[in-house]
Design a protein that fits this description.
- The protein has 630 residues and is α+β, with helices and mostly antiparallel strands.
- The protein folds into 4 domains: 5-91, Alpha-Beta Complex (DNA Primase, Chain A); 100-235, DNA primase DNAg catalytic core, N-terminal domain, CATH 3.90.980.10; 245-371, Dna Topoisomerase Vi A Subunit, Chain: A, domain 2 (3-Layer(aba) Sandwich); 467-612, DNAb Helicase, Chain A.
- It has 27 helices and 16 strands.
- The chain has a 5-stranded antiparallel β-sheet with strand order 1-2-3-4-5. A 5-stranded mixed β-sheet has the order 13-12-14-15-16, sandwiched between helices.
Length: 630
């Protein structure tokens, strides 16, 4: 397609910006300009302005800016040529002129779309027939309703070498066309071509216009690989598309966010549960082009990962890919599923509210970045602190936008300073010399330490019982939800040891996201209505929390805030020390040297000091006498 500057000028002349934008945004005229709620981020007060005179739109809230072409590209996830063609139709202009090669390529693409559409219809018919009985039972067993199967056009590829091939040949589709569409494969040793997909449940993959461009196939039984995707073709580049984007886009724009999950079944299960703004990558880690597609739909997509090690690694890869691309108002958030759950099982067991709460409590990219690169780094010596600062600067340089760089530098340094403050509040470190002077130090050889000792220590776990502080942090928020007005991100970022506390937090954050005046009464009513009153009863029945007066009704807010921040600081410090102790234990198990043993004892002593001196913050645990404000 040959798009000249003259053609674009004619297009902009015929189509006022307000006319195009007004199809998606409710605009109000103010003088020569129009205002409305920005379609690119959530807002309650209009900051989005459209000027026909100047020929552009601009949002003073998120910085979105552009002309009619960019607006269509951003809101409909279209490439530049497709956006121009769409606008040409609206303006009554003939499509931009095409050269001979353009015409030939476009004709070939149109033919391939027809071939793939025919294949999708055939797969659907096979699922509905006798040959697809087992596949239909499998989908039914996964909880899918017949209407859901129909909406997503799921199908079945019989376990025959030439089932699809024979069917399409009978419709005058050539073997060459099927090969180019990725529907057939040629044996390595030569011979007749055969169907690429055999014995698989079929998931059609569509482009932003809703045209079938490829397939994903899930093996029935023990077939390998479990999931198989179409190869790249003239109409399909897997790094440039997202599964279900064409259906999810309008729902995501209405919801103000878009959810990214791992697989096709997760997307379909969420859609069936009423969460239709979910998409999935096509068997690979998120690419730059896929991130751009997501940001055209919502400014802060939520990436939903399993809470296991593989899920954390996937989150870190996405974070690293996104860092250079961050822009004002554009980022990512991360939600981690409970252990052993995926979105499909979560909504089936606990209902769509569980997933909605998880998404609403998603953590910002800065939290994940800190946890991934810096939270576990030791800062107990000047040299190590300098090393952390050096790594922070290296990370900052990965971000291209200068304004974002400045804010990330400030945020990461603030987090480092908070760790240092927590260390200063803790009791002085018990180094090795006081232990030696007290006669308590012996070499690992003299007291008979061994690899087995270190391994057993690591196996049974070490360090403090975190749950008392965690319960106290949650109990305080239950009784004083005003804490969330200033410390919601801190509350979201607490790494709980139990799923019960995770569930209570998710419920509270879910209420807060939809309430303008959150109070403890609303929290308790919500838990009772959801049949979760027993969870609060369990939390409030903890004897270990009875003496922590600031967490219970009747305390002054100043005391509540002081106590809560103290416990949060101690919890973070204990978590950091636990990570350091784990590393020291593994190092001792791997290499039983005196240096490794000394490091192990030093960290263990610091952790014991933290547990034995809970009231290191002056005034902690002593009621101030201030009455609760009414």
């Amino acid at each position: 397609m040959s798009i000249t500057p003259d053609f674009l000028d004619e297009l902009r002349l015929r189509l006022p910006v307000s006319e195009v934008v007004g199809k998606r945004v409710n605009l109000t005229r103010h003088g020569r300009e129009y205002t409305g709620l920005c379609p690119f981020h959530k807002e309650k007060t209009p900051s989005f302005t459209v000027s026909d005179e100047k020929g552009f739109y601009h949002c003073f809230g998120c910085g979105a800016h552009g002309d009619v072409v960019k607006f269509v590209m951003e809101t409909e996830a279209l490439a530049f040529p497709d956006a121009v063609e769409r606008l040409a139709g609206l303006a009554g202009l003939p499509p931009p002129p095409r050269g001979p090669r353009d015409e030939e390529k476009e004709q070939k693409r149109a033919t391939l779309h027809d071939v793939l559409e025919a294949a999708a219809g055939w797969y659907e018919s096979q699922l509905a027939g006798a040959v697809g009985h087992a596949a239909a039972d499998y989908l039914k067993g996964r909880g899918l309703k017949p209407e859901t199967i129909g909406e997503f056009r799921l199908g079945f590829a019989p376990d025959r070498n030439t089932g699809l091939k024979d069917a399409l040949l009978a419709r005058q589709v050539t073997e060459a066309q099927m090969l180019e569409a990725g529907l057939l494969v040629e044996p390595e040793g030569g011979g007749e071509t055969r169907d690429k997909f055999r014995g698989r449940v079929m998931f059609p993959i569509s482009d932003p216009k809703g045209r079938v461009v490829a397939f994903g196939g899930r093996a029935m039984g023990d077939g390998k690989p479990k999931y198989l995707n179409s190869p790249e073709t003239p109409v399909f580049r897997k790094g440039h598309l997202l599964y279900n984007l064409n259906r999810a886009r309008p729902k995501a724009q209405q919801a103000g966010t878009i959810i990214i999950v791992e697989g096709y079944m997760d997307v379909i299960a969420l859609d069936q549960a009423g969460l239709g703004h979910a998409v999935a990558p096509l068997g690979t880690a998120l690419t730059e082009d896929q991130l751009k597609l997501l940001w055209r739909v919502a400014p802060e997509p939520v990436l939903c990962f399993d809470g296991d090690e593989a899920g954390v690694r996937a989150a870190h890869r996405a974070m690293e890919r996104a860092l250079p691309m961050l822009a004002p108002g554009v980022s990512l958030r991360f939600a981690f599923l409970p252990s052993g759950e995926d979105p499909d099982t979560l909504v089936r067991r606990n209902g769509p509210e569980a997933m909605a709460n998880l998404v609403s409590a998603a953590r910002p990219l800065t939290d994940v970045l800190w946890d991934a690169r810096f939270a576990a780094m030791s800062i107990d010596t000047p040299e190590r602190r300098a090393g952390v600062e050096r790594e922070i600067e290296k990370t900052i340089r990965e971000i291209n936008d200068p304004k974002i760089r400045d804010y990330y530098r400030s945020d990461l340094r603030s987090r480092l300073e908070a760790r240092l403050d927590a260390g200063r509040q803790a009791a002085p470190r018990r180094g090795m010399e006081p232990l030696r002077r007290a006669g308590k130090f012996q070499s690992y050889r003299s007291f008979g330490a061994s690899r087995e000792f270190a391994q057993q220590f690591a196996a049974r776990g070490s360090g403090p019982n975190f749950t008392i502080r965690e319960k106290l942090l949650v109990l305080t928020v239950v009784n004083y939800p005003e804490i969330l007005e200033r410390y919601s991100e801190d509350f979201m970022g607490i790494d709980f040891s139990t799923t019960d506390l995770d569930k209570i937090r998710a419920e509270i954050l879910g209420i807060a996201a939809h309430s303008t005046a959150l109070d403890t009464g609303a929290i308790r009513r919500h838990f009772q209505q959801r049949g979760l009153g027993g969870l609060l009863g369990w939390l409030e029945g903890q004897d270990s929390l009875k003496s922590e007066w600031f967490a219970w009704p009747g305390a002054a807010m100043e005391d509540v805030e002081r106590g809560w921040l103290h416990v949060l600081s101690r919890h973070r410090k204990a978590r950091a020390l636990k990570s350091e102790l784990d590393r020291a234990t593994k190092a001792l198990a791997a290499d039983m040297t005196e240096q490794a043993y000394e490091r192990f004892l030093a960290v263990k002593a610091e952790m014991d000091a933290l547990e034995g001196d809970e009231a290191s913050l002056e005034g902690y645990g002593v009621p101030s006498g201030r009455e609760a404000s009414i």
